[in-house]
Design a protein that fits this description.
Strand order of the largest sheet: 1-2-8-5-3
Number of helices: 19
Shape: globular
Largest sheet: 5 strands, mixed
Radius of gyration: 25 Å
Structural class: alpha+beta
Length: 506
């Protein structure tokens, strides 16, 4: 009897200590939701309302079948612009509603973050940096890298260096009408440009058949580490499934390599004149070394930025030429605009590239249909409210969001909303941008708000510059891919599975 009473007492104490705070928190949230007129978002049709495994498995299967963006868009088509998937631990909300995106990314920025989602998968490999932090540390990271990405730096210093890599690229594109897959060439262009821009030393993969042994070892380690990051991101705390010796050695090898580059950059910086130092401001490693003496912080920031930077340009250019090959009249019209602008009579500066309206339309239309990053995810850092999407009737009521709830934004689905971009939203038609003026929160290939991609101007300028130089060199383009539709490969970026197989004439 004594043992029974003791057990009952323990159970009662546990219930009070653990259950009572949950009950009080639930009541407080319910009251706050009522006071603000909040209603829950429509629920996706779930066979498993406890763990939400059926929806998770559906998205995982779509990922394996290279249909993740298409699958998410289909869910929005079924359930509306905002819906939720309920699980026992947290709600997962999916939205493509511009008012909600403005709230999440800008007006209620402090309530949302990425660190609880990203720090675990990212930190062993790239350390704590701008990609996986929130709050004051994120602000510190942003302040460190911002000066290197200014428009002046890109216009005055980066483009002349970038021209060297583009010239090497042009030499490798066949001029005899034979088939070439541009994807691996663009990947090498992105690698050469990003390594020089970030580390002060280019991989020079376009100037030879193979990169240096040291650089190749780093790239192999980085590619393996990036793959494991993806697994850790999907299974955020199942550490035993994602931590292996190869991952540990890849982390160490990548970090040691970047440490060596930092040491060489520090030595070079100490030997440069004031004029030479000013010229090196376009290189991120030098700018970081000027602003902090913390070598580990410098390394982490470089690895964080390299994560998206070494692929973004290659993916974007592949997507542009994927579209141009299937729309040769657009290619012809764009080439005429470039020729009418005077060709190489003057340097292709930042301002001159921006003045080519049809060029900018082609780029915008490509980023609309095939954004480099197809989805973005945030987690609620505190209880907050989304401005719209709640209720089953018209889905216009605000939504009460609990701390820990996760929001998934599909930029792919957002950019193909017919009510925002027209009935032909699935069609590649750059001419729509002659009159289209989308709001900031309906077209956002580089995200928005304080976390807008710091390399946005750099990416757009490199894409525009590469396009101009290639179209100057080649008169016509022909599609050589038997698969007409875009087939995605979802990594950290959304790549074309079939590349961009084309033929040029001069």
């Amino acid at each position: 009897m004594v043992y029974l009473l003791s057990a009952v007492s323990t159970l009662i104490c546990f219930t009070i200590l653990y259950g009572l705070p949950k009950i009080l928190r639930y009541q407080r949230r319910q009251k706050a939701a009522r006071n603000h007129g909040c209603l829950p978002a429509p629920c996706a049709l779930q066979k498993d309302p406890v763990f939400g495994l059926d929806i998770a498995l559906q998205l995982l299967q779509a990922l394996r079948n290279n249909r993740r963006n298409l699958s998410l868009r289909a869910l929005f088509g079924t359930h509306g612009h905002t819906f939720q998937v309920k699980t026992w631990s947290r709600n997962k909300i999916f939205t493509v509603e511009p008012k909600n995106l403005q709230s999440i990314l800008a007006t209620d920025f402090a309530s949302w973050g990425v660190q609880p989602l990203r720090l675990f998968p990212f930190e062993p490999f790239v350390g704590k940096g701008i990609m996986c932090s929130d709050g004051t540390f994120w602000e510190h990271s942003r302040a460190l890298i911002r000066p290197t990405f200014t428009r002046t730096q890109i216009a005055d210093m980066h483009l002349p260096r970038f021209e060297t890599h583009v010239r090497r690229l042009l030499r490798l594109i066949p001029r005899d009408g034979s088939t070439v897959d541009l994807q691996p060439l663009f990947a090498r262009l992105a690698l050469d440009s990003s390594t020089e821009f970030l580390f002060g030393e280019s991989a020079a993969s376009l100037s030879s058949n193979a990169v240096s042994t040291e650089m190749q070892s780093f790239l192999d380690s980085y590619n393996h580490g990036q793959m494991i990051i993806g697994r850790r991101f999907q299974l955020p705390h199942w550490n035993l499934l994602t931590w292996d010796r190869t991952f540990r050695s890849s982390c160490k090898a990548a970090q040691v390599f970047v440490d060596r580059l930092i040491d060489r950059a520090r030595l070079k910086l100490s030997e440069t004149t004031t004029r030479e130092a000013d010229a090196e401001r376009v290189t991120l490693v030098y700018e970081l070394l000027r602003r902090t003496k913390d070598a580990e912080d410098v390394r982490n920031q470089l690895l964080n930025i390299f994560l998206p930077a070494h692929e973004a340009l290659g993916v974007a250019l592949t997507n542009v030429f994927f579209q141009l090959a299937r729309n040769p009249t657009v290619y012809t019209k764009l080439r005429k605009e470039i020729r009418d602008a005077g060709g190489d009579q003057a340097p292709w500066s930042f301002e001159r590239l921006k003045s080519l309206r049809y060029l900018q339309s082609v780029i915008s239309e490509t980023f609309r249909l095939n954004p480099t990053i197809g989805t973005t995810i945030r987690i609620a850092l505190r209880d907050t409210i989304l401005p719209t999407g709640g209720g089953s009737h018209d889905s216009r009521a605000p939504i009460y969001v609990n701390k820990g709830d996760v929001i998934t934004v599909s930029l792919y689905a957002l950019h193909r909303r017919k009510d925002l971009f027209g009935e032909d939203a699935d069609t590649f038609r750059p001419e729509r941008w002659e009159t289209l003026r989308p709001t900031q929160w309906s077209y956002m290939p580089f995200s928005g708000g304080p976390r807008v991609c710091p390399g946005q101007n750099l990416a757009l300028t490199e894409v525009a510059y590469s396009l101009v130089r290639i179209l100057q060199a080649f008169k016509t383009i022909e599609n050589r891919d038997p698969v007409v539709e875009f087939v995605e490969v979802y990594k950290l970026t959304t790549d074309s599975k079939n590349g961009a197989k084309v033929a040029f004439t001069i």
